[in-house]
């Protein structure tokens, strides 16, 4: 009978078997211990991470809440400052429009003064004098032009300051809009929870965005905007006060000059009326004297004709007596009387002729002077007419009381975004 062949295999001894069993038990026990430690550590880690996560979420929410409060506080400050800027812009616009109205109101006085100067240039002869009225009118024209220049400077400065305020308002609006957008974002972040459907993992969320600022820079930026606005408002307020004082001062100067000019005009008109009345009186007396002189000239001429006839008579008598014959041609008393008569008559005729010549010369001079006085009277009447026209022209300058305030219609101002009354803030 043949023997069975055994399959070759590795046989272990009992000790090896026991050793293997012990090792398996020991390893199992060790792994269980390690697993238990890991499980305990895992539980501890879960508790710790849960607490940490809960704390971090709570701390982040608190910080978000604090940040929202800070942003809201600055938003309110910017709103208040923006409202103040809008009010200041309205006040400065009103002051600027008042200056523009005052500037427009100087056009009529300047036109009236220039018209008065032109009218008074129409005087002729000795009436065309450089009197106090001319001086006052020229001073008035110079004053009005200076007032116009000062008012125009105020208007230009107010326009420039309005541009500065508008730019400041634009900066406040931009900063305010950023604060409102930031509030929306932070409030949205504050409302998010782990159960919110809009949460997701993002790519590189811990990156620092370009252009980001530090909290100090953030505060300084808003502080700078508010400080710039306050400074611009202070400059605007001082400018409004200066414009108001300057406008009142200029109006007082114009009113004072107007009264001085009209006083000089009335005084000059009174003097010209006196001169006209005096000249009319002189003309009347001269005309009376001329009439008397003409009458006396007629009498002198009649007397002269009568003396000529008497002289002819005396000459004839003397000539006829030269025909006496012989001794009768005697130089008797009659002859001497006739000679004396002729001498007296010739002297009288000579005196009468001289006086007649003087009277005619005087009459001619009076006529010439009378013509000059009539011409001067005509010029004085023309000058008075021009003065009266000047006074009538100045009636257009109706003085207005300083207490009368004409209401000014204001156009609603808009901010840099085109919205008025802070509509942006109400959103």
UniProtKB/TrEMBL annotation:
Annotated keywords: Cell projection, Cilium, Coiled coil, Cytoplasm, Flagellum
Gene Ontology BP, a term: cilium assembly
Classification via Pfam families: Tektin
Subcellular location as annotated: Cytoplasm, Cytoskeleton, Cilium axoneme
GO cellular component terms given for this protein: axoneme; microtubule cytoskeleton; nucleus
InterPro entries for the chain: Tektin-like, Tektins
Coiled-coil ranges from the UniProt annotation: 240-303, 335-369
Keyword Coiled coil tagged: yes
UniProt key word tRNA processing: no
PANTHER family: TEKTIN
Family label: Belongs to the tektin family.
Protein name from the UniProt record: Tektin
UniProt organism field: Scomber scombrus (Atlantic mackerel)
């Amino acid at each position: 009978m043949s023997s069975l062949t055994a399959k070759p295999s590795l046989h272990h001894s009992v000790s090896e078997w026991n050793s293997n069993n012990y090792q398996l038990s020991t390893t199992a026990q060790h792994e269980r211990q390690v697993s238990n430690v890991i499980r305990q550590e895992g539980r501890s880690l879960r508790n710790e991470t849960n607490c940490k996560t809960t704390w971090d979420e709570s701390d982040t929410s608190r910080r978000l809440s604090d940040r929202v409060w800070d942003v809201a506080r600055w938003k309110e400050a910017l709103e208040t400052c923006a409202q103040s800027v809008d009010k200041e812009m309205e006040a400065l616009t009103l002051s600027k429009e008042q200056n523009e109205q005052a500037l427009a109101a100087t056009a009529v006085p300047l036109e009236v003064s220039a018209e008065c100067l032109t009218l008074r240039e129409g005087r002729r002869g000795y009436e065309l004098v450089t009197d106090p009225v001319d001086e006052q009118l020229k001073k008035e024209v110079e004053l009005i032009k200076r007032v116009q220049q000062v008012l125009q400077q105020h208007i230009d400065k107010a326009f420039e300051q309005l541009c500065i305020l508008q730019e400041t308002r634009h900066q406040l609006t931009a900063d305010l809009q950023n604060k409102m957008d930031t509030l929306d974002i932070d409030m949205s972040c504050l409302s998010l929870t782990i159960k919110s459907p809009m949460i997701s993992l993002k790519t590189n969320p811990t990156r620092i965005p370009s252009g980001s600022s530090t909290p100090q820079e953030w505060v300084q930026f808003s502080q700078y905007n508010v400080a710039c606005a306050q400074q611009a408002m202070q400059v605007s307020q001082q400018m409004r006060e200066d414009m108001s004082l300057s406008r009142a001062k200029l109006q007082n100067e114009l009113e004072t000059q107007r009264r001085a000019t009209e006083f000089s005009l009335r005084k000059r008109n009174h003097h010209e009326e006196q001169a006209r009345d005096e000249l009319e009186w002189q003309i009347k007396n001269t005309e009376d004297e001329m009439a008397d002189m003409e009458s006396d000239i007629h009498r002198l001429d009649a007397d002269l004709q009568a003396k000529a006839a008497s002289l002819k008579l005396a000459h004839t008598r003397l000539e006829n007596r030269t025909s006496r014959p012989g001794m009768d041609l005697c130089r008797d008393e009659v002859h001497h009387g006739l000679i004396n008569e002729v001498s007296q008559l010739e002297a009288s005729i000579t005196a009468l002729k001289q006086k007649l010549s003087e009277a005619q010369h005087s009459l001619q001079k009076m006529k010439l002077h009378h013509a000059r006085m009539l011409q001067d009277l005509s010029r004085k009447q023309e000058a008075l007419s021009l003065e009266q026209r000047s006074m009538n022209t100045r009636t257009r300058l109706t003085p207005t009381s300083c207490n009368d305030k004409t209401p000014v219609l204001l156009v609603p101002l808009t901010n840099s975004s085109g919205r008025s009354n802070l509509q942006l803030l109400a959103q």
